[in-house]
Fold:
Amino acid sequence: MTEDDIFTPNGARSRPPFGSTQARGKVIDQEGREIPGREFADGAPHSRFDGFHFDFRTSTANPFGNLTHEQRLVRLEAIARLLDVAFILPGTNIRYGIDGIIGLIPVIGDLITTAISLWLVREARALGAPWHITARMLANVAVDGVVGMVPVAGDAFDVMFRANIRNVRLLRRWLDKQPRL
Structure:
């Protein structure tokens, strides 16, 4: 008895899927265009999906692919506000965000918010921020992430430090100093 017979009785693995039927009809992409079949130099037909991939930088599948610098910066500011100052503690003037709420989950919450903050730094780098701005942003994220891991004091620090707001301000100040094209 072979291993295939042990895992799949009756030799089901040795048969091609769906018996011996071949696919019929046109292959259509998401935008309704037919994907033409390809043949290589040897004349043998090959899979229509060889080399098929998505390019998210120019594809219509990516809603953020064709944003201007200003639109990207507005998006980063909105995410930073959501993370750091979206809500007001009732009866006080203390503002907090999702970073402070998620940070209440020990370790995992701080890792999640640090990952989102690192994504903001990556976006800043994609906008052309130089290494010294990126380094300061990374330092803010590191301080927020490391101190945020301390059980109760770290959560209070997350609410007061607002690393994401600081990072977007750093990026905005640097972009305002750049010459307009």
